Amino acid sequence: MLIYFMQSTNKVPRHLFIQQDLLKRIDSGEYKEGQLIPKEHELTEIYQVSRPTVRQAIQSLVNEGYLERRKKRGTIVRLRKINQEFTHVIESYDSEMNRKGLTPVTHVLAFKITKANNEIASQLNLNENDDVYKLVRLRYVGNKPVVLATAYLPYALLPNLLDIDFTTERLYAVLEKMQFPILKIRRKLDVLKADETTAHLLDIDEEDPIFYFHSTAFTKHNIPIEYSISKYRGDINSFVFELNHKA
């Protein structure tokens, strides 16, 4: 496919024509979110221009937030940010995504009984080496991985939890049915670089920034019922914080 500059476009700088044409293809869905656009040398052939002209057009779209350069991969159509509101609302991931008109998908990577280390035990008010459930889920929006979440729950309080299929069941809804509704959550946020495993699972580059949440959820009588570690992609997630005036 070759695109030649017609007489009507002679007054339009070539880099601007390419920029507008690429944007049109993004808006039409020809180049979808997260998809690689053709490489620079391919674009020079498509548009019959020099590589610096192509680079100028691409850089303009990068600067405007439509494209993103990825190490070792190329240039992709940038994913639109998902505003996460769980920082001030207690709501399941599935419920929030559904409310936003998005399609949540959950893959359970691991679900087993293990021993609590010092960190987990201290967050759940347990003794070190007490039994806990470990639930590892990779959460998607459509076909895009968004967050890698690992939850720990006290085994002694939750018999038969391994019988639950958390690809379809919501953890907080299950806890509520078992008479352990989530009434309060304490969260801590860090921004870190993705390690090799996290980068692979979230489909990002190693050392890309991720939002790293430590959360402890409390049920009745201020009993900690869940300790979770969630790693959110930095490129497609943003977070909404709501602050109220203290009287």
TrEMBL record:
**How is this protein named in the record?**
Transcriptional regulator
Per UniProt, the keywords (alphabetical) are: DNA-binding, Transcription, Transcription regulation
Gene Ontology MF, one: DNA-binding transcription factor activity
**Where does the record place the HTH gntR-type domain?**
12-80
Taxonomy of the source species: Bacteria, Pseudomonadati, Pseudomonadota, Gammaproteobacteria, Orbales
Kindly state a single biological-process term from the GO annotations of this entry. Answer: negative regulation of DNA-templated transcription
Superkingdom is Bacteria
Keyword Secreted among record annotations: no
Q: Name one Pfam family in it.
A: GntR
Q: PROSITE patterns of this UniProt entry?
A: HTH_GNTR
Q: What InterPro entries does UniProt report for this protein, alphabetically?
A: Bact_HTH_transcr_reg, Chorismate_lyase_/UTRA_dom_sf, Tscrpt_reg_HTH_GntR, UTRA, WH-like_DNA-bd_sf, WH_DNA-bd_sf
